[in-house]
Each structure stands twice: as structure tokens, then as C-alpha cells.
Amino acid sequence: MKQNSGSHAKFLSEKDYNRLKCEIKEIRDIFLIKVLYETGCELNELVTIKVKDIVNDSICFDENNNNQRKSSISKNLANNLQKYIIGNWLNENDYLFKTRQSGHISTKRVQQLINDYSIKAGLHKINTQFIRYTHIAHAYQKGIQNQIISKQIGLTKQRVFQIITDLNITSNLGGYNKFFN
Predict the structure, then answer these.
(1) C-beta separation of 180 from 163 below 8 A
(2) How far is CA 31 from the centre of its chain?
(3) CA distance 110 to 169
(4) Under a CB-based contact definition with an 8 Å cutoff, are residues 123 and 16 in contact?
């Protein structure tokens, strides 16, 4: 786990992120982490994704201003999500991360799962914001420009720049397809 001294922003190294993924055995939980990481979405956005929001290699998120944001996902994740949807008999209007008790998994439960998996992986307790910052850090390190990152995750360019500065990371500028490699 990396943190700039004097900073509150933290992110996982590629190695730590992979350690976290290796601890997850439940299919649904694997997809929770992968969608969170690849889209850089907020926790509230994650739990309210519906099957109809997945369009080809992207996930559509409703934003506060009645607009939609499309966040790219890898072809591999898109294909695996389709298999997950079919295997779980999910309909177009179903939540992607559906539960028997309520319509969708709760934000509290997602936080708890990530926390539990991070401890199993030998990492300190982390939360979903760590995963979001990890997305930003890894994208920037792979050379993706701030404005492209901001469109992907739904933050202003200024806020992305602030986070990158806070994380104290360096970049190799380039296109977004580098993120998935």
C-alpha cells in the first residue's frame, strides 16, 4: 500500500491489488472488485448497476445532472459479466449484484467484504475509496491523461489532478487501452 507522507490519499500497488484479488473466492465478489477497479466508480454507483447498464465494453452510470457517463471495461470483464448474468438468470432490470433480502447488495456489505479480503491478503484495512484511488494511480502510471481518467470515473479534471498530486505518482502519457494490459 502506498501513501504520500502527510497525505490522506492511499492506493494499492499492482502487486497488492493482485494479492487482494487472489484472496477472493466468490464469483460475485470477484466481479465487485473488478468492476470497482476497472470503472473507478463510487460505491453507490457500484451497488446500483443494473444489467441493462452494461453495454458492450462499458458500464453506464447515471450522474447527478441527469446525464450518463460511460466507463470502459476490458473485453475480458465484459464477457465474464455476460456469463455471470446468464448463469444467475438475471433480467435486464435486475441489479448486477442482487441479493435475496433486498434489491441489491448494500454499501456496508461491500465495504465489509473488501475489508475482510484485504486483511486476508495481509494488507491493512482498506475501503472502496482505496480501490478508486488505485484505479486513478494505475491509469496515470500507465500514461492515461487526466481528462480521460476524469471522464472514466466521473470526477472533474481538477479533482483528478488533486488526487494524483496527493498520491505523488509519475506517469507515461498514452491511451486508455494501456490500462487493461
Answers:
(1) no
(2) 10
(3) 27
(4) yes
Query: Is residue 36 classed as helix, strand or coil in its secondary structure?
Result: helix
Cell 463510487 maps to which residue? 42
Q: What angle do CA 104, 108, 111 make, to 5 degrees?
A: 110
90-106: b or e for each residue (b if 16 or more CB lie within 10 Å)? beeebbbbbeeeeebbe
Task: Give 110-154 pLDDT, tens digit per residue.
Answer: 999 999 999 999 998 899 999 999 999 999 999 899 899 999 998
DSSP 124: P
C-alpha cell at 152: 472514466
- Prediction pTM value: 0.86
Q: Which CATH code for domain 12-132? A: 1.10.443.10
Q: What are phi and psi of 97, to 5 degrees?
A: -110, 70
